Structure formats: C-alpha cells, structure tokens
Amino acid sequence: MKRAIIYIGFLITALTLGFALPYSPMLVETLTAQTQPIEEVVKEGDVIFQTTQTGQSKLIQIGTRSRVTHCGIIVMKEGKPYVLETLSTLVLTPLEDFIARGVDGKYWLKRSELENIKIEYDDYLGKPYDRAFRMHNDIYYCSELVYDIYLRQLGINLCKPKKIEDYLILCTEKIPQIESTMKERGITKDQYAVAPVDIFNSDKLQTVK
Predict the structure, then answer these.
(1) Which residues of the chain register pLDDT less than 70?
(2) pLDDT at position 167, please?
(3) Calpha distance 60→187 (Å, rounded)
(4) pLDDT at 49
(5) What Cα–Cα distance (Å) separates residue 49 from each residue in 55, 143, 146, 153, 201?
(6) Which residues of 108-131 are buried (b: 16+ CB within 10 A; e: fewer)?
(7) Helices 2-17 & 176-185 angle (0-180, nearest 10)
(8) Closest CA to 71 of 46, 41, 44
(9) How large is the angle between the packed helices 55-64 and 176-185, nearest 10 degrees?
(10) For position 150, what pLDDT does the model report?
(11) Distance CA 51, CA 101 (A)
C-alpha cells in the first residue's frame, strides 16, 4: 500500500513538472523503436506507432503502462506513403512528417500477413477527432481508427476492447490531471475502448524490421 501511494505521488509530480516517465522492464515494449528511413519499406496497410509529445501522451503512458501513445495506417497516394491518422480531424499526413512529430523521431512498424492491402479512406477524411474515446459513433480516435479499418475492411479483429477502468492502474483515475480530463471529456470508467498498445500487442500483426 505504501509503495502504491509513493508511486502515485511520483506520477503526479512527473505530470506536473513534465518529467519523462520511467519504465520498469514490465512496462517497456521489447521492440526497440526505429529511426532509419522507411519510405522504401512500408506497404499499404502497415500500422505505424510512436510516442507523441503532448500532455495527453503522458496520461496515456500512465494509464496503459506503455510508451506507445499514437498510431496510424500507411496508405499510398500517387506512389508516396502517407499516414491516415487522427489529429483534430482525420487526415493524410506525409510519412516523414508523421515520424518527425514523434519523440526523437522514433517509431514502431507492424504488418499483417495479408497481401496487396488497399485501404479505402476517403469516407474517413475530415471526420472530427473523438475526444471522449467512445466506440461505434462514427468519429474516431487513433487506435479506434486502426481497429475499425482492420475489422471492417480486412476482416481482422486486432484486439478485444476493454473498459477504461482496466487501463487505470494504481488508482490513477485519482490523479488530478486524469480525473479532470475524464470529467471534461465525458469519459466514463465503464465505457469500452482500444488503446494504441492493444493494437501494438496484437498477434495479428508482425514487426517490420
């Protein structure tokens, strides 16, 4: 109990002061993030992950115990790779711009065993970002977008949605920043969601090295 209280106190301090969050071995993805150019490696349908540099990213890291805080799907347009992702709206971002936004320009890349994937993305573009992290409401957050496209277009169920409360470790919902964000956005502990780390850990995707 004392350890939990100390750890929660540290997390609050880390969030308040903007410190980088520490990870014990059980919290760190075994795959080392990559930095080398990948324009000639990526294929349509690949899922790319990164750690973003936002306040929300810190909350996601704490809640999901993972460095992976954002993801998108590679699509090819006029022979060039883009990332279909959620920002303020759903957009196509040039791959190099997506990578540059991540912490230290690092990323993880994963791929399905399916061949010749073609993503139909036009109907997604321009949809607003879902700040409440709710599913099945025709607006999306990053991991839900990937989950939805893989399920609807490719027939692949990447992971099982979980309740928000399943992500909140060591009573992290009592951390002021998390508690206020959930209240302000209308996020409830009993709603279901998929986190970037759930997609990352899917046994339906393999690491592209």
Answers:
(1) 1-37, 169-173
(2) 87
(3) 13
(4) 96
(5) 17, 10, 11, 20, 11
(6) bbbbbeeeebebebeebeeeebbe
(7) 70
(8) 46
(9) 110
(10) 98
(11) 9
Q: Is CATH 3.90.1720.10 the classification given to domain 2-207?
A: yes
- Whose tokens are 């709603």? That residue is 191
Give DSSP secondary structure letters for 48-106. Answer: EEE---SHHHHHHHHHHTSS--EEEEEEEETTEEEEEEESSBEEEEEHHHHHHHSGGG-
Amino acid at 58: K
Cβ proximity of 129 and 89 under 8 Å: yes
Q: How is residue 97 written in tokens? A: 């711009």
Separation CA 90–CA 183 (nearest Å)? 24
What tokens were used for 45? Answer: 């349908």
- pTM for the model stands at 0.82
Q: Please report where in the chains the tokens 């590679």 appear, as a residue.
A: 74
Instruction: Read off the tokens for 6.
Output: 């100390």
End-to-end CA distance of the chain: 41
Measured distance CA(57)–CA(35) in Å, rounded: 20
| Cα 3–chain centre separation | 29
**Token pair listed for 3:** 């350890």
pLDDT at 37: 65
Cα 115 to Cα 1: distance, rounded to the nearest angstrom = 50
What residue ranges do the domains of the chain occupy?
A: 2-207
Token pair for 176: 């002021």
Residue whose pair of structure tokens reads 């022979």 in the numeric block: 79
Alpha-carbon distance 153 to 149, whole Å? 5
